[in-house]
Write a structure and sequence with these properties.
The structure is a single chain. With 106 residues, the protein is mainly α. The termini are far apart. The protein has five helices and no strands. α2 crosses α4. It has a domain of 60 residues.
Length: 106
């Protein structure tokens, strides 16, 4: 069997990386800090989320984020969605709301 293909049993029995060795990038650290400041990370971890993801998607997300743990990666992804800046959507929604007759003094 090629080394890139592992059975579910092999995956479950594989040695796990220690969470303490993770070093989130500055951007991910900022997202997690903001989520923490909003109280999104302070309660107990009681919700279980499972899903199958494309291997390359997970690998790329781990490389870009600097996170090696699947659970921490999922937490960072959810935090990123939860604290996302909606400025671009708001700006687009404002299109056409300024009176064309308004003198902008250009």
């Amino acid at each position: 069997m090629p080394t890139a293909v592992r059975t579910i049993t092999e995956t479950r029995l594989a040695p796990r990386r220690r969470a303490s060795s993770e070093a989130p990038t500055e951007a991910m650290h900022g997202v997690l800090t903001l989520a923490g400041d909003k109280g999104l990370l302070t309660r107990g971890r009681t919700q279980i989320i499972r899903g199958r993801m494309p291997e390359e998607l997970v690998a790329q997300a781990k490389r870009k984020s600097g996170i090696s743990s699947d659970s921490k990666l999922l937490e960072a992804a959810l935090a990123s969605l939860a604290v996302a800046d909606d400025y671009a959507d708001w700006l687009i929604s404002q299109r056409g709301t300024v009176d064309p007759a308004l003198d902008l003094e250009f």
